[in-house]
Amino acid sequence: MGTTKAGTGAATSTSVTPSSSPADPPAKAFKNCSEVRAAGKGPIRRGEPGFADWLDTDGDGIACYPKKR
Q1: Residue 63: is it exposed, middle or buried by C-beta count within 10 angstroms (0-12/13-18/19+)?
Q2: How far is 31 from 34, CA to CA, in rounded Å?
Q3: Counting Cβ atoms within 10 Å, is residue 30 exposed (0-12), middle (13-18) or buried (19+)?
Q4: Residues near 67 by beta carbon (within 8 Å), at least 6 away in sequence
Q5: Hey, where are the domains in the chain?
Q6: pLDDT in tens, 33-47
Q7: Where are the residues of the annotated region Disordered (predicted)?
């Protein structure tokens, strides 16, 4: 198909420097479930933006259930 341009000769590093330790909160996590509800979100699941372990009080991967009426 064509030739590719040769690199600079420097080896590329495959190691990754972690940006935060596992104990650090996610960069854009909600502080509490009141913030989640105020943003019109919830429940939120592990892996979704805004989720943090401290919001998941029963450890099932789902945080900030709607309040019972």
Answers
A1: buried
A2: 8
A3: buried
A4: 37
A5: 25-69
A6: 999 999 999 899 999
A7: 1-29
Tokens of 3: 């030739």
Task: Locate all alpha helices (DSSP H) within 26-69, ordered by sequence.
Answer: 33-38
pTM score above 0.70? no
Q: What share of the chain is helix, strand, coil (3-state, %, to 5)?
A: 15, 5, 80
pLDDT digits (tens, 9 = 90+) for 12-24: 555 554 444 445 5
* 43 touches 66 (CB < 8 A): yes
